[in-house]
Amino acid sequence: MLDGYNRTTNMVLEVLKDPRIQLLNFSVSVYRFQPHDYARLAIEILRGNVNAEFDRNETSTAGYNPQEDTLYFGFKTLKFIEYKAAIVHECTHAICDMRGMKLMDQTASEMAAYIAQYMFLAAYIPKSKRAAQRFNLGGENNIGDISRAAWRIAHSYLCQNDPHKKELAPGFGTDADYADLANAIRKSNLYKHKADKMVGYNGV
């Protein structure tokens, strides 16, 4: 643990040091995300330009507020890989803010965050095409549809440059998968009221 930082900050920094972060190389529309973005975010956190706090009200599992430059989490442990992946998800939003993606709408922002989240998860369980069934497949907010589409795209990115997994790549991460992910986000009760609105990323 790094002295001088709160427990939540240390938790985020620990995830950002995970070797699997080096696999996060993907695109959404005109936006490209690479491992060095996550390394730069860690530096911004260490400098105090991006904060990480425990959500004492536990109103949500995780979130990022671009106006406050603050990551919020409703958990204090990295016991479950789902929690680590949730940190990756929110850190991807923070990267969008850090890079000043002012014209990014909510749909594109969530697409990037879910792809990063599922690439991270897929790195833990790369051999199973059905592994997404372990995560967030409840129906009330269309999270299942989001998860399935994000998993297919994530799986494609992890496979496309690995000669040992190329046979798993065909049919994954197609334009149709991107369209499915965007549509699932727009239909979700979590996002449909703001899907086409600008997020408000303004730098950190």
**Global outline:** globular
Radius of gyration: 16 Å
Secondary-structure content class = mainly alpha
Name the beta content range.
Answer: 5-15%
SSE string, helix = H, strand = E?
HEEHEEEHHHH
> Strand order of the main beta sheet, please?
3-5-4
Overall tally of domains: 1
What's the helix count?
6
Percent range of helical residues:
40-55%
Tally of extended strands? 5
Compile the SSE list and pairings:
Elements: H1 7-16, E1 26-28, E2 31-33, H2 35-46, E3 51-54, E4 62-65, E5 70-73, H3 81-98, H4 106-124, H5 143-160, H6 175-187
Parallel strand pairs: 3-5
Antiparallel strand pairs: 1-2, 4-5
Structural summary, described in words:
With 204 residues, this protein is mainly α. The chain has one domain (7-187). Helices cover 44% and strands 9% of the residues. It is built from six helices and five strands. The strands form two sheets. It has a three-stranded mixed β-sheet with strand order 3-5-4. It has a two-stranded antiparallel sheet with strand order 1-2. A hairpin with a 2-residue loop joins strand 1 (26-28) and strand 2 (31-33). Helix 2 packs across helix 3 (81-98). It is globular, with a radius of gyration of 16 Å.
